[in-house]
Amino acid sequence: MARLLLFGGKGGVGKTTTSTSTAVGLADSGLKVLLVSSDPAHSTSDSLGVQLGPEPTPVEGVEGLWGLELDPEARISDHIPKLTESLGPMLGGQDPELNASEMVLPGLDEAMAFDELLKHLENPDWDVIVFDTAPTGHTLRFLALPEIIEKWAEKIIRMHRLTGGIRALMFGAKEGEKMREELEKFRRRVLHVRRILCNPEVTRFTLVTIPEKMGVNETLRAYESLAEFNLPVSGCVINRMTPNLDNDFIQTRRINERKNVDQLRSELPDLHLHEVELKDSDIHGLDLLRSINSELHGEITISDGLGPFSIGLGLEVHRGTWSDGDDVMLHLPGIVREDLSLRSEAGVVYVGINSREHPVPFDRPAKASQVKAKLENDILKLTFPEE
Ligand SMILES: Nc1ncnc2c1ncn2[C@@H]1O[C@H](COP(=O)(O)OP(=O)(O)OP(=O)(O)O)[C@@H](O)[C@H]1O
Ligand SMILES: [Mg+2]
């Protein structure tokens, strides 16, 4: 499974610029990278100069980089028609104006976005997934969904017991059971998203800000709210630092900015701070993105060995998948045996991770029953039969 790098921060501070630059830099160093954006304004497409859609699209000019724009409309309709269907009669009747699921399940939208993200994260093809504009603060409330759903499920069961007659009118016993099953499935998926997001082996959150008092305060608040949810924040990019020019106005600005950066450093001493200077033009196109990447991370070098390697922002990355003779290795941090399944069809072996299947890259046809699987230290080793 890939590493997940999330970039968050307030509007216009440089999230798209820093996340896109990082994605370009990681791909340039030889990794397979998927850049995911949830921005309906298509600024990631603009930044890269490539039109992105809801499926991974190769980015011209950067080998190893694919981009994707989450479609906010498709999210709910694709994923939970059954859930809305089964909750609908209970919550809002047939009133089409009432979006019943949104009313009672706060943060459902974000949960869907992250579930979609997880689908790509579980795809062993990717080494790193970079997410432009992750939610912070109140939008993270979806992480509390499992508990809310649990309470809901209890209520539904109680209603079933108490309201025999009405129940029969509203929905039969079968429907009630179906509803509970859907809720349970959904609850498990959100729990899984939460496990992945809170696992520092998988996920790193980078806050992006500017060296102004307001930016620093907002960063401190965001850090607090992420810590409340146990999300691992590893670094902070301070973007748009005023460059050192011989001018009184500029020098006064620099003194003030330094004070603000020092305040952030003293309040969050464990955070890696990365400063990026304000440039004389917008950051568009690959050349400028690459120069921002070197300013951010320096040169990214990746050793060819099987162990993890370090990149900037205090990150260690494993390749998502690699092979050695008849063995294929998949890096699956945070995954337990129960989450995994193996199946084959027409000579292709599929590994199922939380019931989502991915073909295992191997050059000969094989059957799942002939493949030996071993999960150790977050690595699933699949040994294929000899030729
Ligand atoms: N260091 C910089 N020097 C010059 N221009 C910059 C710098 N960083 C970002 N910009 C420019 O500032 C604008 C806003 O940056 P960006 O789109 O990355 O912010 P954002 O946080 O993603 O914004 P939004 O919240 O709208 O998604 C862009 O036009 C970008 O090219
Ligand atoms: Mg943006």
Structure, described:
The protein has two domains: 3-297, P-loop containing nucleotide triphosphate hydrolases (Rossmann fold, 3-Layer(aba) Sandwich); 320-383, Immunoglobulin-like. Helix 4 crosses helix 9 (173-197) and helix 7 runs antiparallel to helix 9 (173-197). The relative contact order is 0.14. An eight-stranded mixed sheet has the order 3-4-2-5-1-6-7-8, with helices on both faces. It has 387 residues and is of the alpha/beta class. The protein is built from twelve helices and 17 strands. Helix content is 40%, strand content 22%. Adenosine-5'-triphosphate binds next to helix 1 and strand 7.
Helix content: 40-55%
The SSE order reads EHEHEEHHHHEHHHEHEHEHEEEEEEEEE
**Mean pLDDT over the full residue set:** 80
Overall 3D form:
globular
Q: Classify the fold: give the CATH topology of the largest domain.
A: Rossmann fold
Query: What's the main sheet like?
Result: 8 strands, mixed
Counted up, domains total 2
The number of helical segments is 12
Kindly provide the name of the CATH class of the largest domain: Alpha Beta
Oligomer: single chain
How much of the sequence lies in strands comes to: 15-25%
- Structural class designation: alpha/beta
